[in-house]
Amino acid sequence: MDGWRSWFCGKLSSWGPPLTPDQLIALSILSPAVGALAIALIGRNNDAGYNPRDIVTVIATLITFGFVVKLAGPVVAGDRPELSLFEVLPGLAIAFKIEPLGMLFALVASGLWIPTSIYSFGYMRGHHERHQTRFFVCFAIAISAALGIAFARNLLTLFLFYELLTFSTYPLVTHAGSGKAVKAGRSYLGILIFTSVSFLLLAIVWTWQTTGTLEFRPGGIVSGHFESSRAILLLALFVFGTGKAALMPFHRWLPAAMVAPTPVSALLHAVAVVKAGVFTVLKIIVYVFGIEFLTDGNYALWLCYVAGFTLIAASLVALTKDNLKARLAYSTISQLSYIVLGAALATKTSIVGGGMHIVMHAAGKITLFFCAGAIMVASHKTEISDMKGIGRQMPFTMFAFFIASLSIIGLPPLGGAWSKWYLILGALDAQQFLMVGVLIVSSLLNIAYLLPIVVNAFFFPTTEVEIGGGIKEAPIACVASLLVTAFSCLILFLYPDFFLNLAQMIGEF
Amino acid sequence: MQWLGLWHYWAVIILMMIGLYIVIARDNLVKKVMGLSIFQVSVIMFYVSTGKVEGGTAPIIPEGGHDLVYSNPLPHVLMLTAIVVGISTTALALALIVRIQEAYGTVEDDELNAIDGAAL
Amino acid sequence: MMEQLPALQVVLPLFSALLCLLIRNKTASRLFSVAVSWGCLAIALILLRTVQETGIISYHFGGWFPPLGIEYRIDLLNAYVLIIVAMISAVVLPFGVGHWGLSIPEGREYLFFCAFLLCISGLLGITITGDAFNVFVFLEITSLSSYALIAMGRNRRALRAAFTYLVMGTVGGTFILIGIGMMYLETGTLNMVDIANRLPLAYGSRTVLVAFAFLTVGVGIKLAVFPLHHWLPNAYSYAPATVSAFLAATATKVSYYVLVRVIFTLFGAAYIFETLRFHVLLIPLSLLAMFIGSTVAIYQTNIKRLLAYSSISQIGYMTLGLSFASINGLTGGLVHLFNHALMKGGLFLVLASVMHSIASNEIDDMRGLGRKMPFTMAAFVLGGLSLIGVPGTVGFISKWYLVVAALEKGWYPIAVLILLSSFLAVIYIWRVVEIFFFREPAAEKSIKEAPLSMLIPTWILIGGTLFFGLQTEWTAGVAGSVANFLLGGLP
Questions:
Q1: What is the pLDDT of residues A313-355, one digit of tens each?
Q2: Distance CA C335, CA C342 (A)
Q3: Per-residue pLDDT tens for C409-446?
Q4: What is the pTM of this model?
């Protein structure tokens, strides 16, 4: 393992221009923003062919990913690059410090931005969407915000970028401009701002006022200042304040946001926005509270139950949904609670499981959403009951769907198996046998709401007469992207070491 | 006896209350302004009355003698300013009333509220 | 020259107002008043720098020594408020040079500037003086000129709004006069420092108590503390657009300054908060202001009225900060002076641009403006985000200090209430944002983006809400020093 690691680090640090880590941090966060500016200036969508704006977008995604990858080398080797900007309030600065969990999230977000952009070209063209420039600009800013969250050194910086993420994704959610989209936007903004202002900010100020610091530290910062009911209350405020983690009862924004174009749903709600939410929960549990503090006082047991409940309840609701995107949305809510459960179990293994699930679920869910969008573009179908036999017309899409479903369910040889494995191990470690049961039951539920779609698509005849059968796939950009992400699920099973190493380093600074 | 000796304060209080009552209770804008004036006059009286020193004379130093008790001239001076302020306010208020009369045709508050549909 | 600066701060705009009467030409009087306002800003900056370096400035008018003579006394608090007033006037006066949206008949514009400069000189005078009666005099100068300015609005309701404001404002001013008179009775002096030294000897007497009551109610009327706020929505809604921007950003701030002076310098925080327990009255009123102001704002159809009720809510934040009587609380209240001036000034300037384009203040008429006037509407969204308190904007900084102060005192419910009321702001701001961006504009009008002369001042103020949301040393830093200095021994 070590030889592999050092080979990888050597390779990473040697390519590209020589840049110091703090410069890299600034560049990673700035490149999407600069890209957004460039896209805004170039403007104008062009239905035919590829235009300069798309090229700029792709360049921005590649450059950003390049910077983030360059940072990965030092982090894996044990470095913790940091960058401190100015002080906003006395004793509180906008500052960044990369640790393994943040690195993991940053890689996921910036990495998956690339296939999403390519997918978006195909989707937006195929669906004849308007306001494409606004779309790509807001996308880029949202990625920038996600990287800011990933690299944040203290709660203030994280909160700032967290709110920036909410506001930059609002135009994406309400992209269609229709009454339904505006309503969805209201629900989105309303729930997210309500939770972040009323709970999260309160928790942050309370922490600051009691402990005198907001920094993320291994072992946490609250032990010794909070105990028993106050600690539980603080944890509740933090967790429910992170509305992006979609814990019930603050989950309604996620299905509401499905009215957005599919690339938005894919990246933001399967990868960046919701992952920012669970990342925040994980980070707070490990670096603000500390695993030992939580297990010593048994402060997070209630959270296991809440997460477990959300897990099962969301899966059950998913079973009832005929709209494909709605079903996937509730599936996401359920999967997010896996990660929250991993955090709540507060053992080393469960944290590893949570971290791994960020990666695995991202790859799997994004593929599923890509497929849903491809189906909508190619055949204008949104309801699952209409999709009988669609595997004949769209074999590549449905095959990718099948692969990703297996990953979400947690079966080998797909990546999801690893994360489920570690989560179950973590539950056993914490002696929470009920949670083990919950995890197993939910896997069964996953099978119940995902596999029938695949079975429907391949093993049933089509319900309507197709004029001139044969393959009628989505635009090539869409299909290529979803195949790449589906393939990554397989790769992640075969070579999980990189992310596994990162996840295992969480908690050691 | 103390209470009767403070008769000037009673005058101030009565005038102040009359003034405020007129401002609140009367609908005619001109009457409101009159009430305001009465209210301001009461305050002027309050200040001036506090300037009087028991056994004091006018605050002018006479030829030769300096050993006199003088009344305090400062409140009078302050009230000169206050009177000017009061006059300016009244003038401005009356100018506004003239404009309101031109614009609305009435200076009764209840009629104005009816025209505007709201209490302004 | 440098020693005369305190006097010049007031004398400059005062005499320029008179000169404006002689300059009949509208462009010349406009440019002249802009130049004067920039001069005032320069003086205010120099004064602040001097106070930061050398300490309190004391200027004796006519060479007469205080407490017999009138003294202009500038400490860090005054200098801070002077900057706010001067800065806002320097940005608002050049707004829309060359474009006119006022109801003044042709040929009378110089009168508008005369009144404006008088208002500025009054505000600066209240802030800079160290003599209690002088405060009353300048207060009346400010009030009278603002009544005149408000009455210049297009709608005839502006006249009634100005009249109501006149009646309430005069009652308030006269209450302040009574309060000053009673303090004079008990201490025999009008100089603020002297009163502060002598008043403790008279703490037990009822006169001092009544003096405080009259002063508080009088200042409360001018400050539009709930429930004395009735004049504010009408006055702000019907005044000319730039006048609303100016008054919203300065008049209440200076009244707040007077309240701070009365409580912390004249009477002393210990007497007010420990003996009189004033916060028991002020905190519920502030909370009511915060919630009722925001709630009523949600239902408004006129956008200026919406912002006016929002101002009432924001004033509630300021008085809440004051009533904590702790360093963080007072810092929060004082920094909100600056922040709110930026936010509301900027937002009202946006409305002035909109008024210029579509000649209406009804929200319904503003459908789809986001596409026709992108820069102006972007400024509105940013200002709105600041009102909500999104981190990175000035609104966040004020909220932070207030919540920290609430938690310090252990008043957890109040901390929760502060945050909940920010959420109310989301509702009324976002309602308007949705109408700007998500509705189809009225087809027949050709609506253009606002001219540069309007965009630049607007963006100076709104850009300020971003800049000072990140660089807080000049605002929160100064406010913190002021709070430290005012609270002296109190924790």
A1: 999 999 998 888 899 999 999 999 999 998 888 888 888 888 8
A2: 11
A3: 888 999 999 999 988 999 999 989 988 888 777 765 67
A4: 0.91
3-state DSSP assignment of residue A223: strand
According to DSSP, the residues that pair with A92 across neighbouring strands are A89
Whether the pLDDT of residue C491 is over 50: the answer is no
pLDDT at A65: 87
d(CA A308, CA A248): 10
Determine the Cα–Cα distance for residues C230 and C169; give it in Å rounded to an integer. Answer: 11
**pLDDT tens digits, residue range B17-60?**
999 999 999 999 999 999 999 999 999 999 999 888 888 888 88
Residues listed for chain C: 491
Domain count, chain A: 1
- Residue A89 has its nearest CB partner, among C388, C422, C476, at C476
Torsion of CA A392, A394, A397, A401, to 10 degrees: -40
Compare CB distances from C391 to A163, A174, A177 and report the shortest one's residue. A163
Name the token pair of C103: 């109801």
Closest CA to A284 of A117, A182, A149, A469: A149
Q: Does C389 touch chain A (CB under 8 A)?
A: yes
Evaluate if residue A501 carries a pLDDT over 50: yes
- What stretches of A260-300 show up as alpha helix (H) in DSSP? 262-264, 273-283, 291-297
Percent of chain A with pLDDT over 90: 16
Each domain of chain B, given as residue ranges in start order, spans 2-53+66-119
pLDDT for position A509? 55
Residue C159 DSSP SS3 = helix
* Residue ranges making up the domain that contains A194: 2-504
Q: How far apart are alpha carbons A246 and A244 in whole angstroms?
A: 5
Mean pLDDT of B77-90: 94
CA distance C255 to C278: 18
Task: Let me know if residue A234 belongs to a domain.
Answer: yes
Q: Does B19 touch chain C (CB under 8 A)?
A: no
Interatomic CA distance for residues C48 and C57, integer angstroms: 10
Task: For chain A, say whether C383 makes contact (Cβ under 8 Å).
Answer: no
Q: Does residue A377 belong to any structural domain of this protein?
A: yes
CB of C302 within 8 Å of a chain B CB? The answer is: no
Q: What span, in angstroms and rounded, lies between the C-alpha atoms of A417 and A419?
A: 6
Cβ count near C65 (within 10 Å): 10
Chain B touching partners, 3 or more CB pairs below 8 A: C
The answer, for B112 touching chain C at a CB cutoff of 8 Å, is yes
A502 within 8 A of A75, measured Cβ to Cβ: yes
Nearest CB neighbour to C419, from listed A86, A156, A198:
A198
**Does the residue A95 lie in any domain?**
yes
Residue A144 included in any domain: yes
* CA dist., res. A193 & res. A201, Å (int): 10
CATH among 3.30.70.260, 3.40.50.720, 1.10.287.3510, 3.40.50.2000 for B2-53+66-119: 1.10.287.3510
Alpha-carbon span C134 to C128, nearest angstrom: 10
